[in-house]
Amino acid sequence: MSKLSLTLACGNYEIVRALKEGAVQPEGIDLNILTDMDSTTRHWRFLRQEQFDVAEVSISSYIVSRDRGMPFRSIPVFLHRRFRHGFIFINTTKGITKPTDLIGRRVGVKSYQVSAILWLRGMLEHEYGVPHKSIEWFSELDEDVEFTPPEGLRLTKIADDKSIETMLAEGEIDALLHPDIIDPILDKDPRVGLLFPDYKAEEIAYYKKTGIFPIMHTMGFKAELVERFPWIVPNLYKAFEEAKAIAMKRLFNPRVVPLAWYQNAWEEQEEVLGKDPWQYGMTPLNVKNLETVVGYSHEQGLIKRRIPLDELFLSVSEGRKRGHFRA
């Protein structure tokens, strides 16, 4: 009997390794897995051109796509999470020493809509008293989904021949929110530093206060695919869960990772974030996480209404007390 062939685009993560290598195979599905592209390219190709059947996609852009009625759905599989306090970069000559020093400043972003930046704007506003409209924003890339800035938002797209990272180093902008570690930091350029030098302490304090380990990406589907083959939803969800379980079992052995103090890092993560900080599904912690990011998207004018989570995420339930064979 032939299987349904699907193309899946995602990051090359340890938690999907078993799927990529075929150790886990979703029942009835033959996956063609693509991992050789950066996140922004993958998101663009999925949301703008629908090149993949299933794709890891920006949670921010996915929420916007649903608000626009675009033909995508999602399951609660979150391959990428990251705390973001360490991704606020400053020009060291501008006298910026605390978050409120960003008020009234010129601040760059890779793109305005990207998940990391959505989270950071929300955190700055709600945790540190920096309203997002108090800043003049400069973006480098076009957005995953078309976006018209709401009234009162000052947002300028820089020229194609300019670099937002160079603008920061040369003082054309005062700060930069970015999803990646930027080149001036890697090059140890003294003109560029971090708003939070001890960002790890800030992130731990944030988690202890909020219980949020920010979700960056979700697993998107073409809507027509779900309509035609609804059975793929629980089957793929279970496959992602199984692949993650295999990865975590493997990573528990410190010999597999070439880091001197890896065991200490593993134990510290568990102490702070619990047994399964990378959990999938609509768990209480994930619900709070997702309601927060939807709220930020609405407050910042990316979406017109606070979309209920049951509209954003497909149910992966197989029924209460079902899903396991009885011997």
Could you give a quick summary of the protein structure above?
This protein has 327 residues and is an alpha/beta fold. The protein has helices at residues 17-21, 39-47, 59-67, 115-128, 164-169, 183-186, 199-210, 223-228, 232-251, 262-273, 284-299, 309-312; strands spanning 4-9, 29-34, 54-58, 72-75, 88-91, 106-109, 136-139, 154-157, 175-177, 192-194, 217-222.
Written account of the structure:
- The strands form two sheets. A six-stranded mixed sheet has the order 8-7-6-9-5-10. The chain has a five-stranded mixed sheet with strand order 2-1-3-11-4.
- It is globular, with a radius of gyration of 20 Å.
- It is α/β, with parallel strands linked by helices and 327 residues long.
- It has two domains: 4-81 and 215-312, D-Maltodextrin-Binding Protein, domain 2 (3-Layer(aba) Sandwich); 85-210, D-Maltodextrin-Binding Protein, domain 2 (3-Layer(aba) Sandwich).
- Helices cover 36% and strands 15% of the residues.
- Strand 6 (106-109), helix 4 (115-128) and strand 7 (136-139) form a beta-alpha-beta unit.
Mean pLDDT: 96
- From the spread of the alpha carbons, the general shape counts as globular
Secondary-structure element string: EHEHEHEEEHEEHEHEHEHHHHH
Beta-strand fraction estimate: 5-15%
Highest-level CATH class of the largest domain: Alpha Beta
CATH architecture of the largest domain: 3-Layer(aba) Sandwich
Count every helix, treating DSSP H or I runs of 4 or more residues as helices.
12
Judged by helices, strands and strand pairing, the structural class is alpha/beta
